[in-house]
Design a protein that fits this description.
By secondary structure, the chain is of the alpha/beta class. It is 26% helix and 26% strand. A hairpin with a 2-residue loop joins strand 3 and strand 4. It starts with 14 loop residues before the first strand and ends with a strand. One of its GO terms (cellular component) is cytosol.
């Protein structure tokens, strides 16, 4: 990992925020999540914003509870609440978290502790700021604040965990090593991370590195099904199956017209849930 893993703190004066109402059940209940979109934060030429697949996946989480929640419920949550490194109760890892909408929604909907939101160094300050914006809501819900970290997919076995809070951004980072089984996660979430030809290999290697080897472990991925991305998506599926993973649930949705909308000249999104193949 490069030495510049500590990201700069964004200026509050340049930060915009949005509020998303995310469904928490099938009866119309929602949770309100505030998301920071600081101006000027970029990685790989892309600014920090909430992309369509992130909203789709956040909206789908309550439907995915029966498939994904068992992996979280069977995880030990008796460890200490500390920023000093890995804990036995790591439960959810978000890859390419960006503004953090998906990871925050998962923490709130599933009352999950040990949630870690990761991205490249320039993006992590924005992710951390989104967490801070929701601190009071998380406290009211008795949900632990997600932690943020730097995870470069070109070196997928190393995760640098940042101390909580913008005031601690300059403190020494703590390293998690995917080669240690105790550092792995039973649930991985990733949205809007398949749009260039190098990403299928990098994303699948990162999932392979961090997904816990257990019957209940799940990886959930959501992406835009644009024509230009079809080869990228096809390669992603082939690589996931080549790792010994199998898709156990999938679906399509659209941000504007709902999950039953089918593409007519526009963009729709697909989500898929993966587990390790059983003997």
């Amino acid at each position: 990992m490069a030495t510049d893993t500590t990201p700069p703190s964004p200026s509050p004066s340049t930060t915009l925020s949005k509020t998303f109402s995310i469904p928490s059940d099938n009866n119309g209940s929602t949770v309100e999540i505030r998301i920071a979109e600081p101006a000027g934060l970029k990685a790989e030429g892309l600014g920090l914003t909430t992309w369509g697949a992130s909203l789709i996946l956040a909206n789908q989480l309550h439907h995915l509870t029966p498939e994904v929640r068992p992996a979280i419920s069977t995880t030990n949550t008796s460890g200490s609440d500390s920023d000093e490194g890995p804990r036995a109760e790591n439960t959810i890892l978000e890859l390419g978290a960006g503004t953090g909408l998906v990871g925050l929604a998962a923490a709130m909907l599933w009352k999950a502790s040990g949630v870690v939101l990761t991205d490249l160094p320039p993006i992590v300050p924005g992710t951390s700021e989104s967490c801070a914006l929701n601190s009071l809501v998380l406290e009211t819900m008795s949900v632990e604040m997600p932690r943020c970290g730097t995870l470069d997919w070109s070196q997928p076995s190393t995760l640098y965990l940042h101390p909580s809070g913008q005031q601690n951004m300059g403190r020494e980072l703590r390293k998690l090593d995917a080669r240690n089984p105790e550092h792995k996660f039973p649930t991985i979430l990733s949205a809007d991370t398949l749009y260039s030809e190098e990403q299928p290999e990098m994303l699948t290697k990162t999932i392979e590195a961090w997904l816990q080897r257990s019957e209940t472990a799940r990886a959930v991925v959501c992406y835009a099904c644009r024509f230009a991305y079809l080869d990228v998506i096809r390669e992603f599926w082939e690589r996931m199956e080549g790792l010994g993973l199998e898709c156990v649930a999938e679906g399509k949705a659209d941000t504007e017209k709902g999950e039953d909308w089918r593409e007519v000249g526009g963009t729709y999104y697909e989500w898929c849930v993966w587990r390790w193949k059983r003997e």
